[in-house]
C-alpha cells in the first residue's frame, strides 16, 4: 500500500512536503550530487536551492564528517540508516553550525538504490543553552557573550596547548593579564608557576635584575643570590606586561633569552637553562614602534608569533549586563552583601558610558556602588559621578530624557571617532542629515573637535 | 613560492578544520617544480598551523574554514584563498593564472557573499 501511495505523489507535492519539514533535507544521486534541497536546508546552510542542485554534496553541506566518516557513505555501504550523528557544518560566513544528521537509502520502484536522503537539524540553540549552563561564556575570570570575545576565548584555548609565545594587545583595563592567566590555566604548564611582571612599572636596572636575577656580590647590597622571574617561572608561564616600554638594551637581553632559552644572572658566570612560556602584552602599537626604530624588529617577530587583540569595552557593550552580574556576584561573595542587581535606570547609565578604563573601570564603578548600596538594587544615585555623562544628583534619579540624551551623545561621540571626526561621514554613518548632527551636537553640548576629518585645523 | 592545498579525493578538501592531507607545491615562474604530500596527525588548529609553518608555506588554498580556524591562521599570519572547491589540477591552474578567487572555483553560496563583503570593505576603505 505504501508503494502505491508513493507512486501517486506528484513531484510538486513531494517538494511541498519536503518544504514543510523544519529539518534540512537533501537527496543525492549515485554520483554524490544534490538532487533535492528543501527550504529548511536553504535556511540552515544559507545556500539557495538553485546553487545547491547538481553540486557535490560535500561542497554544499561542508560537514565535519564528510571527509573522515560520512554518514551517507556508511548507509550506502551497510544499507542501514544512520540516526542523529553529531557534527558541525561551516557556512559561508565561517560559522560552525552544530547539527545532528540522519541518513537513509533512496530506492526506485524496482528496489534499486538510486541515491540517498539526508536530514539534518540545526542544534545552535541547544548548543547555546548548553554553553550557558556549562559557563562557556567564561574563560578564567573573563566573561563575555560578544562574538569577538567568544572567538578570542576559543583562540586562547587552542593556543594554550602550544608552546608559542603569545602577544596580547589591548587598551588598559581590557583584561590582558586575565587572559594570560587563562591561557596558562588551560595549558599543560598549569601545574607550574604563573609570574607577571609589569615592565613599564620598573626602572631599567631593577627590571633587569628582576627578570634575570643576580649573584651575591654582583653589586653593592647584593648579599645573596636572587633568582630572576625567568628562573622562578621554570616550567610555567612568564607574563611580561607593557613590553613596549622596555629599553633597547633590555630588548637585546630579552631577545637572547627567548632565542637561547637560557638566562645569565647579573654577576653570574654560567647561563641557566629556562623552560618558560612567555606571554607578552602591550597597549602600544609595536609595529609603529618598529618602524620608528624604537622597538627591535627581531624581538618583535620573536614575541609576535600568535597575536590576540582584545577589543575595548565600548566595542562590545552587549557584555556590560553580563559583566555587571559577574561583578555583583563576586562583590556579594567577597563583601558578604546581598545586592540583587542594578535597576533599569542604573543599567541605562552604565550602558551609555564610554569606559576609557574598560572592564576595570566598570568593575570600579560597581565596587563604588557597593560601598553606598548595602543590599537591594543599585540605583543611579549609587553610581559614581560622570557615569553615563550624567551627574548623579543625590536622591534624584535620572529621568528617561536624560538617559536618551546621554545615549545619543555617546552614539555621536563613538561615530565621530570611528569616522575620523569627519562630520559628513559621521552623519551618513548615523543615517541622519549633517545639519541634524550639528544641531544635536550643539544641544547635547558635544564640543566640535579641534582637528576634524578634513585634515585641517578647525577655526 | 610554496603553495599548500588541503586535498581529498583529488579535489580540495571540503572543510579545512578537519582535513587530513596537504599537498605542498613549489611554484616557480608559473610552473610547479616540486610536489610533496604531508598529513596532519590531528585536527588541532595549532598543530595544523605549525605544520604549515614547518613546511614554510606561503599561501594556503583550501575549502571551508571556520572562524575559529581562521583566527588561528590569521594570528600566525598565514595567507590563504579559502572556500575553494574543485579538482586540484584546475585549482592549481587557476591559482597560477591569478584567477582566484573565482565564481567557478568557489563553494556554492560563497563567492557572491564573500566577494560582496570584500567589495564593501574595499569601498569602506576608499571612502576613508
Automatic annotation (TrEMBL), chain A:
Sigma-54 factor interaction domain location: 142-371
Molecular function terms from GO: ATP binding; sequence-specific DNA binding
GO terms classed as biological process: regulation of DNA-templated transcription
Record carries keyword Repeat: no
Domain (PAS) ranges: 10-55
Entry keyword set: ATP-binding, DNA-binding, Nucleotide-binding, Transcription, Transcription regulation
Protein origin, superkingdom: Bacteria
Protein name stated in the entry: PAS domain S-box-containing protein
Automatic annotation (TrEMBL), chain B:
Membrane-traversing stretches: none
Domain Dinitrogenase iron-molybdenum cofactor biosynthesis: 9-96
Bias-annotated ranges (Basic residues): 113-128
Gene3D superfamilies: Dinitrogenase iron-molybdenum cofactor biosynthesis domain (3.30.420.130)
Region Disordered, residue ranges: 107-128
InterPro entries: Di-Nase_FeMo-co_biosynth, DiNase_FeMo-co_biosyn_sf
Pfam family, one: Nitro_FeMo-Co
Protein name in the entry: Putative Fe-Mo cluster-binding NifX family protein
UniProt source species: Desulfosalsimonas propionicica
